[in-house]
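U., I forgot to send this yesterday:
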Amino acid sequence: MDHKVIGVFCYNGGSISIRIGLDSSINGVVQELHVKWLDLGLKCYNMCFNRDEKDNMIESDGELHSLACYCFAKKIAIVEIKVVVCVTSLITLMVLFLQVFQLVVVVWWLFVNLSSLIFG
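Result:
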């Protein structure tokens, strides 16, 4: 019995079809997504599909296998999976850097002003 479904992964106006089955892995899917969309490698993103009017995230091999079994049981041959970007990793690092930089500037400003008050 072949529990495979075609996952149509949609991102940024484009799509890629990947066959998903009980032997599929998240790492394998992620590698194929990164080959198609190079910029995804620099971003934090989620993969979601809609089941019973509810969005479900795919984060593990087990959830990928569960999707394949669900689609097989419901006789669904093709399932749309949205790739949704959370936050770009580079942006996250820049924000963190700016926050640390601001803290350093404030500490330096306090040091300069307090030392001038103490030492005249």
